[in-house]
Amino acid sequence: MKAVELMIFDFDGTLVNSGTDLVNAVNYTLKRLSLPELPGGKIISFVGDGVHKLLERSLGRFFPEYFDEAMKIFDLYYTEHLLDHTATYPGVEAVLTHFSDKKKVIMTNKRHHFTVELTDALHLTEYFDEIIGADSRPYCKPDRRLVDPLLDLYGIPREKAVVVGDGINDVLLAKNAGLISCAFLNGLGNREELLSLQPDFVCEGLLEMISFFC
Fold this sequence. Notes:
Elements: E1 6-9, E2 16-17, H1 19-32, H2 40-45, H3 51-59, H4 67-81, E3 87-88, H5 92-98, E4 103-107, H6 112-121, E5 130-132, H7 148-154, E6 161-165, H8 168-177, E7 180-184, H9 191-196, E8 201-203, H10 209-212
Parallel strand pairs: 1-4, 1-6, 4-5, 6-7, 7-8
Antiparallel strand pairs: 2-3
Helix pairs in contact: 1-4
């Protein structure tokens, strides 16, 4: 087992399965703009780099002409529907409770207010020392400058900090910052892409982490 003191968790696709609500919000936006809707799997493949990239990729050749209007439509719809289907993945609360003595941070490319609204509703907020969204800092994952202030703040060496996530940005963040990487293979991210990055640990379910870290 690997001793850790700081656990940095991704959010969408790691702690919560939010894929259906994101797909619905994107396709509602496209429909309102009289643009072709997209298959759910295609939209999911666009997730991970924040809402700007999500909409840019979803709009395709209609970006940037429709971007500003698309953002307004998406925001209004997602604000009302972000909890329609989104729920925690199996084992999340058991894992967070098990590691109650560790510093824990959510680090996501989702905007902060949406993340906190979800963590509040799903009773996750209390488990975390900090929640860092895409608009919380000047940088987004996988920029290592997100991590360095946390290590300084908590006085934790790099070799005792782990990034847990389902996306390539999570593994790359860990590698860029010299931290341990743990890839969750059953989230929203592409499993083959994750494995190609050779993360330090991989898990099919989050409960497996209990046997990885102490």
